UniProtKB/TrEMBL annotation:
Organism, scientific name: Pendulispora albinea
Annotated InterPro entries: Gfo/Idh/MocA-like_OxRdtase_N, GFO_IDH_MocA-like_dom, NAD(P)-bd_dom_sf
Name by which UniProt lists this protein: Gfo/Idh/MocA family oxidoreductase
Lineage per the UniProt record: Bacteria, Pseudomonadati, Myxococcota, Myxococcia, Myxococcales
Recorded family membership: Belongs to the Gfo/Idh/MocA family.
Keyword set includes Oxidoreductase: yes
Domain GFO/IDH/MocA-like oxidoreductase: 127-244
SUPFAM superfamilies membership: Glyceraldehyde-3-phosphate dehydrogenase-like, C-terminal domain, NAD(P)-binding Rossmann-fold domains
């Protein structure tokens, strides 16, 4: 297969390494808004670099992986669909609700496979949590607790265009909560705080957030996130039921320290970032995309799924700003 990659930054260069290791990828073609960056990544991997991102659409691709900046997602995604190129696009689908809806409309009118990048769906722990919840082994689930705790904030130039902590970070939690439960969220409460660098507040964002989500069956979910978890990268999901309790993401490398006498768990070296924590999941995700591009399987994460998670993020941001409960129908198209 001849696979194109749009974007050669942090996640793009990592995807490039993964794609080069997959047997089905015979040729990898890389382009970036920064042509020199694309050239360097391609040269290191024995791939081909193109001078412009536009050149990807003239390259007879069997599939396109979009890892460019969020603002570029809608245009690149739609152009790929118009050319009949199966496409993998990192979350979110677009920076705004209006653009996300526009992409969804184009996708629904075409027969081109599209997969949105929510890698937690391919993590062994989250897969096991989903099976435990949906099989009924936990009994009825009364509480879910999800967290995404970054070890350090992103650079100042990133924050103003990120979409904010709910759309850029916690959207992963919102997606995975829907995925493991198979239920829909009906209303949210959310708040946020700024105790770190001033540039986050100046961008209208918060560096720490907490949200309470209520599902259509009455299950409650508590979601938290921060940009200042210097101990290490911490992503977990707890599912507490009437019969049993489980946790995904709790292992020797969890950056959490017990102060109980004699307790030494966890004692491993904490994960320094999301790539190290989710490396196997990212690899499985792209391997599945190649099957999607070959039209051997259906997309495991559609644009509609991306929209559903984005709507929860929109509701949480509105709840934070307006300091009130927000029902999902208030933000639904």
């Amino acid at each position: 297969m001849r696979i194109g990659l749009a974007g050669a930054g942090l996640i793009g260069s990592f995807h490039a390494q993964t794609l080069r290791q997959l047997p089905a990828v015979e040729e990898l073609v890389i382009a970036d808004a920064n042509a020199e960056r694309a050239r360097q990544v391609a040269e290191a991997l024995g791939a081909k670099a193109l001078p412009r991102v536009d050149d990807l659409f003239e390259s007879k691709l069997d599939g396109l992986v979009i890892a460019a900046a969020t603002a570029a997602h809608p245009e690149l995604l739609v152009r790929a669909i118009e050319r009949g190129i199966p496409v993998f696009c990192e979350k979110p689908v677009a920076p705004t609700l209006h653009e996300t809806l526009a992409v969804l409309e184009r996708v629904q009118g075409a027969r081109v496979p599209v997969q949105i990048g929510f890698q937690r769906r391919f993590d062994a722990g989250y897969i096991a949590a989903r099976e435990a919840i949906r099989s009924g082994r936990l009994g009825w689930v009364h509480t879910l607790r999800a967290c995404t705790l970054d070890e350090a904030p992103p650079p100042p130039e990133y924050v103003p265009t990120s979409g904010g902590i709910f759309r850029d970070c916690s959207i992963h939690d919102f997606d995975i909560l829907r995925w493991v439960t198979g239920r829909e969220i009906v209303h949210v409460h959310a708040t946020g705080a700024n105790r770190g660098d001033d540039y986050i507040r100046a961008a209208g964002d918060v560096d720490t957030m907490a949200a309470i989500l209520t599902f259509d069956d009455g299950t409650l979910a508590v979601v938290s996130a921060t940009m200042y978890n210097a101990k290490g990268y911490d992503v977990r999901l707890e599912a507490l039921g009437s019969k049993d309790d489980i946790c995904a993401g709790l292992d020797e490398r969890t950056p959490l320290r017990s102060v109980e006498p004699g307790v030494r768990f966890p004692s491993g070296t904490p994960y320094p970032g999301f790539i190290e924590r989710f490396r196997p999941a990212y690899q499985r995700e792209l391997a599945v995309f190649l099957d999607v591009a070959a039209r051997q399987v259906e997309s495991p994460c559609s644009v509609a799924d991306g929209l559903a998670a984005f709507l929860v993020a929109e509701a949480c941001e509105r709840a934070r700003r307006e300091r009130r409960m927000v029902r999902m129908e208030e933000v639904a198209p």
